[in-house]
Write a structure and sequence with these properties.
The protein contains eleven helices and nine strands. By secondary structure, the chain is of the alpha+beta class. The chain folds into three domains: 118 residues, PCRA, domain 4; 81 residues, Double Stranded RNA Binding Domain; 44 residues. A five-stranded antiparallel sheet has the order 8-7-6-5-9, with no helix packed on it. A two-stranded parallel ribbon has the order 1-2. It has a two-stranded antiparallel ribbon with strand order 3-4.
Length: 309
């Protein structure tokens, strides 16, 4: 109730709970009657009534709005998203990205679930995981984070999402701080007793939008004699290795750039090296993510020394 902070101290919350108990009503109903609770100060009463109005409005919205729109309204109306942005920490950025991905998944749910609801969405995405009670010998697929995998071993391990910008994370690339994620990759790899698989997608929906990523540099760092590449027929690469799946080109931008370059194309720049086109921009530009440093640059094709690979 008080996160983000709404000026509600423990005394106000205790008084609210006491009133709700004595009247046999819910805390939310008690908040609507905050003016009747003498033990709560005027400023706290105002905050309680505002909170009650917010929850009531959001509850009404769930009946008529798409799930993604409802979640966005919750994040904005509650002030939680603004609170995370104000923190300006790596942890807060990670939480914001998780929330953005939640909205993106909700949007996909809205598209395919006829008559879907917030309750139905939450039931669909709920996963029960308890690593402490994990039966490692059980014949089942176990889904967990790399951090939670420490100390465990499995006959086969799949490391998914091994793409530049995801693993390693784009923040690590921007800050030139890869060692922690490289150590984490080592932890994940050494969980496998017999077989280890890396998977990556050439294109994926992420944070509500489509992205084109190169295979993770961590794959390239494994000695070739220890690896075997498996790809579908017709595969073309998106990095220096033989990784990736076919990409469907986006419509051209109506310019010279759009005529020759499409999202997902492998390119090489005279100064920046190899990369992949992530977007075709209006006016003759393309945005390229370069494998050397993971950076993204928007270039004018008419002037940039850029060629398809």
């Amino acid at each position: 109730m008080n996160s983000p902070k709404r000026g509600l101290g423990q005394a106000a919350v205790t008084a609210l709970a006491g009133y709700a108990g004595s009247e046999g009503i819910t805390h939310l109903e008690a908040a609507a009657r905050a003016d009747r609770i003498a033990a709560i100060r005027p400023a706290a009463r105002k905050s309680l009534k505002a909170f009650q109005a917010l929850i009531t409005d959001l509850a009404a919205a769930t009946a008529s709005s798409p799930v993604a729109a409802t979640i966005e309204a919750m994040l904005a109306g509650s002030g939680y998203l603004d609170m995370l942005k104000a923190e300006r920490t790596i942890e807060a950025e990670g939480r914001i990205e998780n929330l953005q991905e939640l909205v993106g998944v909700a949007a996909e749910y809205d598209q395919r679930a006829v008559g879907g609801s917030l309750r139905g969405f939450l039931q669909e995405i709920s996963l029960y995981t308890d690593v402490d009670k994990l039966a490692v010998e059980q014949e089942a697929v176990t889904l967990m984070t790399m951090h939670n995998a420490k100390g465990l071993e499995f006959p086969a391990v799949f490391i998914i999402g091994a793409e530049e910008g995801i693993f390693p994370h784009s923040r690590s690339l921007e800050e030139q701080n890869l060692e922690e994620e490289r150590r984490l990759c080592y932890v994940a790899m050494t969980r496998a007793r017999r077989r280890l698989y890396f998977t990556h997608a050439t294109t994926r929906n992420l944070y509500g939008g489509r992205s084109y990523n190169m295979a993770s540099r961590f794959i390239e760092e494994i000695p070739a004699r220890l690896t075997r590449v498996e790809a579908e027929p017709g595969t073309r690469t998106v990095s220096g290795g033989h990784y990736g799946k076919p990409v469907t080109p986006v419509p051209d931008a109506g310019s010279a750039a759009g005529t020759f370059f499409h999202a997902g194309d492998n390119v090489v720049h005279a100064a920046f090296g190899e990369g992949v086109v992530t977007r075709v921009e209006p006016g003759g530009g393309v945005t390229v993510r370069f494998s050397r440093d993971g950076s993204e640059r928007t270039l004018m094709v008419e002037y940039a020394p850029l060629k398809k690979v």
